[in-house]
Write a structure and sequence with these properties.
mainly alpha
Length: 184
């Protein structure tokens, strides 16, 4: 998929980019001035991405949600089918690798995935060392999306399941806040 993406030329309509996502995060955080740790994380992630080298080999249109529940194997055809492109964006291909690795349960699976990837496409070792920072982008983006969904969510006269969902989302946000305090 990344090989095809590195050759892809979009038409007049273009998907969002990592920069567009950072701008959206900034807009959400401006409505939540109490989220200082997230604002500082946004500045760190933005600065880091400004200096990330990009080329047609490292940056392009990615799936962003390339996990096992979005990939199907068709045994008769001996082919894979990918679904759920709603989060696709322009980003470093390493971001797709990071989201795919979120499904791996062991270091052995991670190494096998990376060996398989490298058997088809090069992956710079230096880029691999940045995986933890790509995960920070992912956490910050997820946080902003959940925070945005919680805006004006303190409602009355709601179904019984609503408060449980709201509390779950609030716990996710709190967990993300703790992650923003981790050292770079």
């Amino acid at each position: 998929m990344h090989t095809l993406s590195s050759q892809y030329e979009p038409g007049t309509v273009r998907r969002r980019s990592a920069e567009d996502i950072l701008h959206m995060i900034d807009q959400v955080l401006q409505r939540h001035p109490e989220e200082q740790d997230a604002v500082e994380e946004l500045h760190r992630v933005s600065l880091w991405l400004q200096f990330m080298p990009s080329s047609r080999q490292t940056y392009g249109l990615i799936h962003y949600d390339f996990q096992l529940d979005n990939v199907f194997y068709e045994a008769k055809e001996r082919s894979f089918h990918v679904i759920d492109f709603d989060d696709a964006m322009y980003h470093w291909f390493a971001m797709d690798i990071v989201t795919a690795l979120a499904d791996t349960e062991s270091e052995e699976e991670k190494r096998a995935f990376l060996r398989g990837y490298r058997s088809i496409r090069s992956l710079d070792n230096e880029l691999e060392t940045e995986f933890a920072r790509f995960r920070r982008f992912e956490r910050l983006y997820g946080f902003a999306r959940v925070l945005r969904s919680l805006e004006d969510s303190d409602l009355t006269d709601v179904p019984p399941w609503y408060e449980g969902l709201r509390m779950k989302l609030l716990r996710i946000c709190e967990n993300d806040r703790q992650g923003f305090r981790e050292p770079w």
